[in-house]
Amino acid sequence: MRKVLVTGGSRGIGHAVLAFLESYGGYEVLAPSRHQLDLADPQSVRAFLMSCPDVDALVNVAGINVLGRLNELDEAVVERMCQTNLFAPIQLIRGLVEGMRRRGGGRIVNFSSIFGVRSKEFRTLYSLTKFGITGVTRALARELGPDGILVNAVAPGYVDTEMTRKNVPPDERERLCGEIPLRRLAEPIEIAKLVRYLISEENTYLTGQTVVIDGGFLA
Known about the structure:
It is a single chain. The termini are far apart. The protein has a single domain, classed as NAD(P)-binding Rossmann-like Domain (Rossmann fold, 3-Layer(aba) Sandwich), CATH 3.40.50.720. 46% of the residues lie in helices and 14% in strands. A 6-stranded parallel beta sheet has the order 2-1-3-4-5-6, sandwiched between helices. The chain is globular and about 50 Å long. The protein is α/β, with parallel strands linked by helices. The chain has 7 helices and 6 strands, in the order E-H-E-H-E-H-E-H-E-H-H-H-E.
């Protein structure tokens, strides 16, 4: 049974990944609560890693997206977004990669976004973290490839989650659906199915990629 650590498993895409892997079978999924692993707190991440077992795969789903003009965002918000979206995934990778080497290989899936491919006003910080994740993914794919560790990123478009409903008003969601070739938002389960393939033993050669899953929005 493959052991997988998933962050952000309490809601949204992270919960869909957790539920799908458990229902699919063959996976033991670790999905720590915020009390067990607070990604916004570097000390919490370090403490979690001290007791975390070796895993076959790491899926860095958790993230936050606070919209606003860069010069108007509070410094604490800047630090929290950078820590949660970018620095914490790097910390987890650093702490777990040796265990993957001991197990003979592994899979890492980071979460970028369409806003890590292109950007939009009021999303400077979010794009900073997501473009950063793309860079981390590419560099680590080269660095860890000789160890049999495949590293990829998933870049979802608009997904029907609590975060999307919070940041995108209903009238704008309707307009966006008209711009998406499939004429709808993604369902979280659709992202989860892609993640399962990327962490599975079926994936033997796909690494260093940021896979955009957006219903054709960026096309």
